[in-house]
């Protein structure tokens, strides 16, 4: 953990990577009885590159805000669902998409828990799952994603997080509706 020039808590790239690796390995070992091997970490700015497979996205909100996601091929998603639900899956269906969403929720939830002691309380959104061919995902803003690829047998999946301080959390007033805690009954 580090502190910036304004005295606010920050998190280093290495700490974020460690939280992602630990959370992913724990979820796969404990909940799926599968071993994953972390690959070479990289940082990426959203690029408009067509993608295929399954992507599950979860928002983070609080004193720090951002998103976390897991992306994998359809075959890898079926393998994850088969392990979680203890039934054979070979094609994408509603159960597979729900399983990928739940695994993403567990991983990003564990990352969030690891970061909260340093960065303050955060909440998670409900997972959103995207499946198909030749689609693109991107986030607004100029933040970069920390991407940790994992090997699952012959398949590859990526867990990534993009997180930054919430500038709105420092404000006590704003235009529009007041903060809920400022409302009086």
> What share of the residues lie within helices?
25-40%
Amino-to-carboxy terminus distance: 40 Å
Helical segment count: 3
Q: Find the count of extended strands (DSSP E, 2+ residues).
A: 10
Question: What characterizes the major β-sheet?
Answer: 8 strands, antiparallel
What is the correct CATH architecture? 3-Layer(aba) Sandwich
Strand content: 25-35%
- CATH domain topology: Chemotaxis protein chec
Which blocks of ≥5 consecutive residues have pLDDT under 50? 1-6
Report the top-level CATH class.
Alpha Beta
Instruction: Report the CATH superfamily.
Output: CheC-like
What does this structure look like?
With 185 residues, this protein is α+β, with helices and mostly antiparallel strands. The protein has one domain (2-166): Chemotaxis protein chec (3-Layer(aba) Sandwich), CATH 3.40.1550.10. Helices cover 31% and strands 32% of the residues. The protein has three helices and ten strands; from the N terminus they run ββαββββααββββ. The chain has helices at residues 13-31, 74-85, 94-119, and strands at 2-3, 9-10, 37-38, 42-44, 51-62, 64-72, 122-124, 128-135, 145-152, 155-165. Strands 3, 4, 5, 6, 7, 8, 9 and 10 form an eight-stranded antiparallel β-sheet that branches. A two-stranded antiparallel ribbon has the order 1-2. It is globular. The termini are far apart.
List keywords for this structure.
185 residues, eight-stranded antiparallel beta sheet, 3 helices, 10 strands, single chain, Chemotaxis protein chec, disordered N terminus, alpha+beta, two-stranded antiparallel sheet, 31% helix
């Amino acid at each position: 953990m580090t502190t910036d020039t304004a005295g606010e808590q920050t998190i280093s790239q290495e700490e974020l990577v460690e939280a992602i690796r630990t959370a992913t390995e724990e979820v796969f070992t404990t909940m799926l009885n599968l071993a994953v091997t972390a690959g070479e970490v990289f940082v990426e700015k959203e690029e408009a590159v067509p993608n295929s497979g399954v992507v599950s996205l979860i928002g983070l909100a609080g004193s720090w805000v951002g998103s976390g996601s897991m992306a994998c091929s359809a075959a890898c998603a079926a393998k994850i669902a088969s392990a979680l639900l203890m039934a054979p899956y070979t094609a994408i269906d509603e159960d597979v998409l729900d399983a990928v969403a739940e695994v993403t929720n567990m991983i990003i939830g564990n990352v969030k828990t690891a970061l909260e002691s340093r960065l303050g309380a955060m909440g998670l959104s409900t997972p959103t799952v995207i499946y198909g061919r030749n689609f693109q995902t991107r986030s607004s803003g100029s933040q970069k994603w920390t991407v940790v690829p994992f090997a699952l047998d012959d398949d590859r999946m990526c867990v990534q997080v993009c997180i930054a301080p919430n500038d709105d959390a420092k404000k006590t007033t704003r235009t529009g509706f007041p903060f809920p805690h400022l409302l009086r009954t």
